[in-house]
Amino acid sequence: xxxxxxxxxxxxxxxxxxxxxxxxxxxxxxxxxxxxxxxxxxxxxxxxxxxxxxxxxxxxxxxxxxxxxxxxxxxxxxxxxxxxxxxxxxxxxxxxxxxxxxxxxxxxxxxxxxxxxxxxxxxxxxxxxxxxxxxxxxxxxxxxxxxxxxxxxxxxxxxxxxxxxxxxxxxxxxxxxxxxxxxxxxxxxxxxxxxxxxxxxxxxxxxxxxxxxxxxxxxxxxxxxxxxxxxxxxxxxxxxxxxxxxxxxxxxxxxxxxxxxxxxxxxxxxxxxxxxxxxxxxxxxxxxxxxxxxxxxxxxxxxxxxxxxxxxxxxxxxxxxxxxxxxxxxxxxxxxxxxxxxxxxxxxxxxxxxxxxxxxxxxxxxxxxxxxxxxxxxxxxxxxxxxxxxxxxxxxxxxxxxxxxxxxxxxxxxxxxxxxxxxxxxxxxxxxxxxxxxxxxxxxxxxxxxxxxxxxxxxxxxxxxxxxxxxxxxxxxxxxxxxxxxxxxxxxxxxxxxxxxxxxxx
Length: 506
Description:
Oligomer: single chain
Structural class: mainly alpha
Helix content: over 70%
Distance between the termini: 43 Å
C-alpha cells in the first residue's frame, strides 16, 4: 500500500481532524447552504484523507468500522481508500435502515390521507374529554411521532390545536406546545424514526430495546412539557392569529367532520401498535430467554415455533412492513368508502399518494447513509482512542460526553437528525465494544437522543415549521418553543446520569 505521509504523530491529531470535519459540516450546511448529504459525504472522505494509513478492504473487515488493522499492501493510495471506505460506510448504513425509513414514510402518509391519524386524536378526546384536551394533544403528538415524522405530525395536529383553542376560548399556546413538545421527544427518542434508529444501529442495540427504553425515558419529559406549556401559556397568553393553510373554514370542516367518515378506532391504531408491540415484544422475549432459559417452555415444543414466528414478525423491517401494509389497506378502504363503494383506479391513487413521501424518504436515506459514512470514517481515524484518553484525563462521564457533543452539533447546525448521526458516529468510536462502560449502552443512546433536542432556533427547520404554522413571531417562538426543548434536553441528561448510576442495567 502506498501511504501518505502523516502530518502529525501527535496522539491528539485525530481530534484535530474531527474538529475540522465537524466545522466543515456546520459551515457547509448553515453558511454555504450545501445539502446535508453532500456535506457529510465530503466530510467522510476528508476524514479518511487526513487519517494516515487506512486498512485495505477485505472479506474480514468489509462493512465493519472497528479497530484499525494491518493488511497486506497494494497499489492503492490512502486517498483512494478514503473514498472506497466512505462509499462502503454509506452503503452499509443505507442498507441497514433504508427500508424502515421508506416504510415509515408510507405509514405516515397513509395515516394522514385516510384520516386514521385524525381518528386517533378524536378517540383520545372521547376517552379523556375536552377538559383534558391539552393532555390529549400531548398524547397524540407523543404516539403519532413514533411512526410519523415531526413536521408531518405538526402539520396534522396544528389545525386540531387551533380548533380546540376556539372551543376552549383560549389556551392556544398551551395546546400548541403540548402537542409539539411531545412530538419532538419521541421524534428524537423512539425508533423507527431515522435518528434514534441510527443511534441504535450505531451502538449495536436491539431496536426493540431502544424503543422500550426511549418510550420509558420520554414519560417524565412529557410530563414536564405539559407543566411548562401551562406555565408559559399563563405567562404570555399569545393570541391565535390567522395563518396560511389554517383558515376558519378549514377549522369548521375539522370540527364538524363525522366520526363515521373516518376509519375505525382499531384500524387507526393498528399502524402504530404493530411495530411497537412486535419489535418490543421480541426484545422482551429475548431477554426472558437469556435470563430464564426454562421460562414457559420457550426452548421446547410449541415455544420454539412461537419464538420462530415472533422472530420473523418482530424483525424491525418486517414489523414496519406489516404496519405499512395495514396503513395502505386503511387508505384504500377509506377511498372506496368516500367514492360510494366504488374502487376506481386504486393502484393509480396509491401510486400518486405515495410518490411524495417516498421521494422524501429517499432524501432522508441519502442523508442518513452519508452520516453513517462520516461516522464510520471518524471511527476508522482513531479518534475514539484520543477522546477516550482525553475524557479519562478530565474524568468526564461518557453519558455527559455523548449529550454534550450531540447538543453542540445540534445548536451549531440545527438538524436533530444530523446531530444524532454525528453524535453516534463519535461515541461508537469512543466506546468500541462497550467494555469501557459500567452501565448499559442504552444510556448513551438516550443521552444522544436528548442532546439532539437542545435549543431549537433559527437554523432548525422545525423552528420555522412551528413558528409559521402556529402564527407566533420569531421572538415568541424563541421565548417558548426554544425554552421548552432546552428544558426537555436538560431533564433528559439528568435522567441519563442518575439512571446510569443507580440502575446500570448490567
